[in-house]
Amino acid sequence: MRYDTLEACHRNAFSFFGGVPQEVLYDNMKTVVLQRDAYQTGQHRFHPSLWQFGKEMGFSPRLCRPFRAQTKGKVERMVQYARNSFYIPLMTRLRPMGITVDVETANRYGLRWLYDVANQRKHETIQTRPCDRWVEEQQSMLALPPEKKQYDVQVDESLMTFDRQPLHHPLSIYDTFCRGAA
């Protein structure tokens, strides 16, 4: 995944949830971490753009420990759950009707699935419904930073332009200069 895609996904998620978590847990992706334990144990060298984005949004990036299923599994199980409980049944239902599952269709059906199915079941790890846990977790979310405004820059036409001599010359001039100086 390219970094700009990763950042756009984060911005969309933060907007959807109406806030920013204090920490974001990552797998060891190249767009996130350049070197684990670069400075000392637990002090990683993160991708500079991600580090800056985290400062801008107010969250701290955190990495899953390698070869530790407890943290990495949390991330991967969610993807598997969404695939098996949402995506495959959706494809099975829509394909016979000739409906293509594009981004808009997946988002429309996905929101309904989140509210009606995924957030209503009792989650095995937290032993409560995600919608109930979300009410608690919202309290610790950081506010979204104000959107940066884009300004158009207009060049004043009264600015004067000066003719400039090129700063480089043909190589023969440098050759002559070097021979004369030797």
TrEMBL record:
What is an example of a GO molecular function annotated in this UniProt entry? nucleic acid binding
Q: Where are the transmembrane segments?
A: none
Q: Name one GO biological process term.
A: DNA integration
Q: Which residues form a coiled coil?
A: none
Query: Which keywords annotate this record?
Result: Plasmid
Top-rank taxon of the source lineage equals: Bacteria
InterPro entries documented for this protein: Integrase_cat-core (IPR001584), RNaseH-like_sf (IPR012337), RNaseH_sf (IPR036397)
Q: What is this protein called?
A: Mobile element protein
**Domain named Integrase catalytic: residues:** 1-138
